[in-house]
Amino acid sequence: MEAATHPAPPAEARAVDSVPSRGPAAFRAVTPRRAFASSADVVRVFDKDPELLAGLDPAATDLLRRRAVVPKLCVDAGPWSAPMEGASPGSLGLLVLDGLMIRSLDLAGRKCPELIGAGDVLRPWDGERDGSVTMSVSWTVLERTTVAVLDERVAPVICRFPTIMSALLSRTIQRSQTLAFLLGIAHIRHAETRLHTLLWHLADRWGRVTPAGVHLPLALRHETLAQLVCMRRPTASTTLQRLARAGEVERRRDGTWLLTGQPPSFLGSEAA
Q1: In 137-163, which positions are buried (b, 16+ CB within 10 angstroms) versus exposed (e)?
Q2: Do 163 and 218 belong together in one domain?
Q3: Residue 88 has what DSSP assignment?
Q4: How many domains does the chain have?
Q5: 199 and 109 part of one domain
């Protein structure tokens, strides 16, 4: 009688099982510290963000989703004291799983905000060092936000999968491209075109198509929209009223926005 043979597990699954650990469990590296011992303090990060597993075979995907358990932070709406120190060597950063917040750079009395949402990778402890020009950074949570801590214990697992690392890197690049786009919007002279472009830009990420138009489910105040495009709040309010009268934008009762027209067109130099 011939001995039964079994196919070798996929390379990705072998990579997961061969992650070095300090004990017999292959995933000891991603077991939360005692400070995060309760289930309320941890999260299966790939269950919440399965897009990071795109391109992996089913065996590796299943194993990572079940065993990559990391600490999480749940932050209520309001000011947030982002962790600025104490990141362990090898920590990848913080991964936003849901919610919405603003990172605001305060420079010369002006606030320069950046919207942060699900999928963004944060490293608040980087880039805030003292320089020749005095500035400060503040964080405000607009909607209750959950953040996964990709610390030094899960990093060895993630780094064994180039597709996951590539996806995380892509998201950091997308953040920089978004900031560059906002800078470009700020150079548009026409106020209506400037705000209209911003709203459609936000809709590309957060918008949902409905029979009435594209719903932007962000309760953004006039002041926030004005800061995003380097505009004063009274000017932004007047401009939004003109866009509403033109049938381009509608403010809903819950504070969110409905785009009822078409995206702006930049033919010729009319936006300049």
Answers
A1: bebbbbeebbbbbbbebbbebbebbee
A2: no
A3: P
A4: 2
A5: no
- Could you give the 3-state DSSP secondary structure of residue 6? coil
Task: Name the token pair of 134.
Answer: 């005095």
Q: How confident is the model at residue 245 (pLDDT cuts 50, 70, 90)?
A: very high
Contacts of 191 (CB under 8 A, 6+ apart): 231, 235, 236, 239
Give the Cα separation of 254 and 100 in Å (integer).
Answer: 16
pLDDT (average), residues 224-240: 95
CA-to-CA distance for 257 and 42, rounded, in angstroms?
34
> pLDDT band at residue 11, thresholds of 50, 70 and 90?
very low
What per-residue confidence (pLDDT) applies to 238? 97
Residues in the chain: 272
φ, ψ at 113 (rounded to 5°): -85, 155
Pairing of β 93-107 and β 213-216: unpaired
